[in-house]
Amino acid sequence: MESHVLARAIVYIFLLFMQVPVEVMSRNASSVKLQVVNIGALFTANSVIGRSVKPSIMAAVDDVNFDSGILQGRQLNLIIRDTNCSGFLGTIEALQLMVNDVVAAVGPQSSGIAHVISHVVNELHVPLLSFGATDPTLSALQFPYFLRTTHSDYFQMQAIADLVEFYKWREVIAIFVDDDYGRSGISALGDALAKNRASISYKAAFTPGAPTSDINDLLVRVDLMESRVYVVHVNPDTGLRVFDVAKHLGMMSNGYVWIATDWLCSFMDSSETMDSEKMDLLQGVVALRHYTPDTDLKKSFSSRWKQIKDKESLNFNSYALYAYDSIWLLARALDVLLSEGENISFSYDPKLKDTKGSSLHLSTLRTFDQGDKLLQILTTMNFTGRSGQIKFDLERNLIHPAYEILNIGGTGSRRIGYWSNHSGLSITTPETSYMKHANVSTKDPQLYDVIWPGETIKVPRGWVFPNNGKPLQIAVPYRVTYKEFVTKDKGPVGVKGYCIDVFEAAVDLLPYPVPRTYILYGNGQRNPSFSDLVYDVSQHKFDAVVGDVTIVTNRTRIVDFTQPFMESGLVVVVPVKKVKSSAWAFLKPFSWEMWCVTGAFFLFVGSVVWILEHRTNEEFRGSPRQQLITVFWFSFSTMFFSHRENTVSTLGRLVLILWLFVVLIINSSYTASLTSILTVQQLSSQIEGIDSLVSKNVPIGVQDGSFALNYLIDELHVAVSMIKILKTQDDYLEELLKGPDGGGIAAIVDELPYIQLFLSTVNCKFRIVGQEFTRSGWGFAFQRDSPLAVDLSTAILQLSENGDLQRIHDKWLSKDACSAQSNQIDDNRLSLNCFWGLFLICGIACFVSLTVVLRAPLVVLASRSLSTRKRPRLRTCLDERVAIAGVVIATAGSKPPKVQTCSSAHLPQM
């Protein structure tokens, strides 16, 4: 009996010495107040991150235990388990750790192990604070007890995507280790690039621990591809082998771009010095590093690091800071939990029991009763640690994710900028952007210059033509009409035309060769559908289209076009003929009502002025006949502002000045209208543009294969039955000459370059009416995100600037085109037919006047039949009258002299 009691006492003392809580042999919750709180740590000790994290975690535990103001006088008991960088061993170590009734675990560093362990901690309600598992998928709701105390790779990949956009690259090749960490990170990179219209052209994955030969084979395949921008996302322990192989293959030279995620800086920061051979592998590499502010707390940690003995790493990386802050985060949360009166207790889970014959001892695992409460407290903590502010957002990610962007060169690295989720790329520290209001627009992203591989500061193009020898498969429309633009040729190239010459000239300006093969698209019997051709390019049946392809909205959604090399737009062509000018065209400016009213007002105003003036103005007096003549003369002379009668009354002057203003307006309007009628070319067609064409609902012709067909139907809602497809240029001429009444068409809707060629061959029988109602151009189409489209756009602009584009145009398309202004001078020249009516009126007036004047000689001849006695006197009087008339004529415009005339008594009686 005594030995049994003694044995029980020894067991109790042993358990107390081992600081293991006494289990109450029941399935009820244990509520024994503990003086020691067990916490666990999971990491791979023999790794770049593990060698930096282990001393940091142990130092943090010592600092917490040294602080008597925390944990209500309790102590942290750290239990470390080595995961050995193995998913299986890591899971076993995690289970063994949970047997020790830990309230939380710090780690692991591996995302793959974190995925497995998260299922364990979910069951046992033990929070898992990971300082190194950056897999974005671990933030899923599936793992509520997983809490990341570092930044997710989601943000790091956003930074790389912004970097790719900053340098205007469109495709990258991802080189990564094929595990949870690598796959999830690259998946996040693909999503981030897609937001910036970039993409991953190839995913080059290799297995964890792959031999160097496998990496060599992988990079050989990569080097044959188009993209020269490589994103390396591997672990820091084996990542340098990638650069070693790349250096051996000549892939660290001019034209290549290497971007490394934070693993590379972690490796470099953990080493006191990098030997020259390793640095030689990394020249020109751009790398990312977690940004941690240079605070006093960080500096104190650096001083503390130097005092740590038996550490395997002389320097520390950013993961050491996150691990240190993870311990303090857990300690502060436990302090809050205990200060609220909570006791740490564990319970048996009835679901965790060994099946029959099982030796796993699952029943030794117990659930942490306060796990939910502790997790809630952890997510609401807010304090400043060695790595910066420790606070979680609604998605349980650390706030203010930020990275430094480093350029490796020489014997070290230099910072070229920062990235944060608040300001993007910048040369200012993230703290500066945090101080700004979120709605304040930031400036354009900026970075300092980079020394790229090959020791050049010129930004690499990011791609080259593939080295696998496969030429570009270029589709060329096999045209039936307008072969000047592109057509089949018997030469070695196989095609010729204006578009081909432009493309060849642009390719010659590129700084690299572009092997290419032209493939005719179509059967040669009718023009192919250009929309179908563009669609085939988008489906990767061809690499590009070279021809007269119009850049329209629907096509730009599926392919990329170059800069337009020819302006184009839809126009309307109709048959026309000149309208003969009328001999009475001078009457057309006014309607007959206007003529009548204008004449009446001339007489009315003359009468009003006579009434106002004749009582006081001698010029408006005289015999009734003279006054009537004066009224008529004054009225119509105001039309030419040539009236000679003066107005002396105030009312007369007022009426006259107002009437002269009216006459000025009438004269100006008449002149302008008559000029327009006689000088502007008149066309017989009643179609004046696209609006009148559509409204008349007449047959319309369009070129076979042109986008004009869909435009008329979809945009202008023209009935399909009113559209006729024209397959040849002869169809253009024949259908227009027939006209709608003869079963032909009223007009053609086609692009301006085609119409200019057509009009040059029809001797100006047709004309363009109205303006271009679409504005577009012709470009070369390439597959989506093809960098060749950008380079060729630059080459086309260069051709335009140096005049080569115009010379090619003159070679193929320089013909005498018939346009609306071709015979402008001849058409505006007025003929006699326009004015013979005026000349007729003037001639009749002159004839009548001469008839009246010539009556005087007839009277003289008649008087010779009179008696001889009275003849001399008659002659004398007649001579006097003729003399007086001559004086009057000679002195016209001045006051006539007084002349002695014969009285009526001297004249013979008739």
How would you characterize the largest beta sheet? 8 strands, mixed
pLDDT average, as an integer?
81
Oligomerization status of the protein chains: single chain
Number of strands: 31
Coarse structural class: alpha/beta
The amount of beta strand, in percent, is 15-25%
Low-confidence stretches: 1-33, 819-832, 867-910
Tell me roughly what share of residues is in helical segments: 40-55%
How many distinct helices? 30
Strand order of the largest sheet: 7-6-8-9-10-15-16-17
Distance between the termini: 191 Å
| Global outline | elongated
Radius of gyration: 50 Å
GO cellular component, one term: membrane
Function: Glutamate-gated receptor that probably acts as non-selective cation channel.
Organism: Heracleum sosnowskyi
Domain Ionotropic glutamate receptor C-terminal: 473-815
Could you characterize the architecture of this molecule?
By secondary structure, the chain is of the alpha/beta class. It has 30 helices and 31 strands. The strands form eight sheets. The chain has an eight-stranded mixed β-sheet, with helices on both faces. A five-stranded parallel β-sheet has the order 2-1-3-4-5. Strands 21-18-22-31-23 form a five-stranded mixed β-sheet, covered by helices on one side. Strand 16 and strand 17 (424-426) form a beta hairpin. Helix 2 (48-66) runs parallel beside helix 12 and helix 15 packs antiparallel against helix 26. The longest helix has 30 residues, at 650-679. The chain is elongated and about 165 Å long. The termini are far apart. The model is unreliable at 1-33, 819-832 and 867-910 (pLDDT under 50). Glutamate-gated receptor that probably acts as non-selective cation channel. One of its GO terms (cellular component) is membrane.
